[in-house]
Amino acid sequence: MTSTSVSPTSVPLQSIPNATETTLEAAPADGAKLVHRPRRLRRSGALRRMVKETVLTAADLIYPLFVMEGEGQKEAIPSMPNCFRYSLDLLLEEAKTVWKLGIGAIALFPLVPEHQKDNAGTESYNPDGLIPRAVRALKQILPELLVITDVALDPYSSEGHDGIVQNGQILNDETVAVLVKQAVVQAEAGADFVAPSDMMDGRVGAIRQALDAEGRVNVGILAYSA
């Protein structure tokens, strides 16, 4: 065999007379200057499995469920075709269907009666409110179902805002104090994750501190960007 340079990535071993693996390893490699080598990630089955294309299954989904007071009630949501608000009894049946389909997580959103709303969102941290009752009921029939709860004041606010309003301004810190109470009540009811959807500064840190102080260290805080 001559000393002609051979690229081990482009010349089959069997095409080189009397070549051996040792011969190829010793041969100069013009490709040594390559920086991008995708084949590095194809060396073994474990590597190939790790970097293969993402497969989306029902287990990867979070199903939003909208709950309202009443019994035997199912109400269409005009802005969301084929989505409905359910009274708690029907919500539980919908959750069972979702679980059977392989969806392991739901996110709860309430429709609160107008007479329960005020500027301070006090109904949001009522232990016997709509969301805590829904969480407890869901965990009773489907204990392995991941339950995610929305943390915000707008469903409970008479002003329709995510925060307490005073003289046309949102009171950030006062609102955070209410959001903390809301998150703790939801966690005590059995929520696996609380998910702040408001825009108050500092609320994630405050919620985390309060949950930990109440012994709810395993309750997560989920960003909606996730």
Summarize the helix and strand pattern as letters: HHEEEHEHEEEHEHE
Task: Please give the CATH architecture of the largest domain.
Answer: Alpha-Beta Barrel
- Shape descriptor: globular
Give the tally of β-strands: 9
Structural class comes to alpha/beta
> Low-confidence parts lasting 5 or more residues at pLDDT below 50?
1-11
Radius of gyration: 28 Å
What is the class of the largest domain in the CATH system? Alpha Beta
Under CATH, the topology of the largest domain can be stated as TIM Barrel
Question: What's the CATH superfamily of the largest domain, by name?
Answer: Aldolase class I
Termini, distance in Å? Answer: 59 Å
Strand content: 15-25%
Q: Helix content range of the residues, please? A: 25-40%
Average pLDDT over all residues: 89
| Strand order across the largest sheet | 2-3-1-4-5-8-9
Number of domains: 2
Write the topology of this structure.
Blueprint: H1 21-26, H2 45-51, E1 62-68, E2 74-76, E3 84-87, H3 88-100, E4 105-111, H4 130-141, E5 146-151, E6 164-166, E7 169-171, H5 172-189, E8 193-196, H6 203-213, E9 220-221
Parallel strand pairs: 1-3, 1-4, 4-5, 5-8, 8-9
Antiparallel strand pairs: 2-3, 6-7
Features:
single chain, 226 residues, alpha/beta, TIM Barrel, 2 domains, two-stranded antiparallel sheet, 30% helix, 17% strand, disordered N terminus
Brief write-up:
α4 (130-141) runs parallel beside α5. The protein is α/β, with parallel strands linked by helices and 226 residues long. The termini are far apart.
Structure, described:
A seven-stranded mixed beta sheet has the order 2-3-1-4-5-8-9, covered by helices on one side. α3 crosses α4, α4 packs parallel to α5 and α5 crosses α6 (203-213). It has six helices and nine strands; from the N terminus they run ααβββαβαβββαβαβ. Helices cover 30% and strands 17% of the residues. The chain has two domains: 21-51, no CATH class; 58-221, Aldolase class I (TIM Barrel, Alpha-Beta Barrel). By secondary structure, it is an alpha/beta fold.
